[in-house]
Amino acid sequence: MTDYLALGLKYGGFTSLDRVYLENKLAQLDNKDKLAFITPPPSVINAYFAEIYQKQSPEAATDYYFDLSRALNLFNQQPSFAEEKPFIRLNLSGKSYGFTYENEQEVAVVFAEEAEPVTDSLLFEIAQVFPHYKIYMEGAAIKMRKLDFDEEVLEDLTPQTALLSHVSKLKGNMFKITSFNQDELLELAQAFSGQKYYGFVGREAILYIKA
Q: What is the pTM of this model?
């Protein structure tokens, strides 16, 4: 049985001084309305997320939001700026985007307020904002999640013409391109086809291609 009082005190911004008030309010509501009542407004969630991102790390911020989503059932497979459920707002290339988790597996979806073309540059920008996630396309949707690939290098495929990039063949028919120059990386990527996963570490862009 869900303990809405405990959830409200832990995630809803209520303190121990609010316990009696919260208990009385929850007693008047059905389960759906209880959950809605203890869910913080989007402005509060975004403020906490931004503070944790700046003071701790991107991963700590997403951990906070994922835990909140799991506790308060904020998962949403078809999010929009109609904001039926709170989401995290992002500014990407000067445009309004948001992201939310869609399931218990920590798969997140990134979506635009207005229809925008999805470019490699955009996907690398998201990877820079969330370097602990891999960014990829699933149909027309931008997804991100924690993914670990076998990094054992089977073959060095770096062409002599590459100045700032490195190309490797990994296990599992996976190719990895790293570069300090996105244009050079994307030019090298034209030699491969398959599912792409975008990443970023430090100042280096990373592209995995599953052939």
A: 0.92
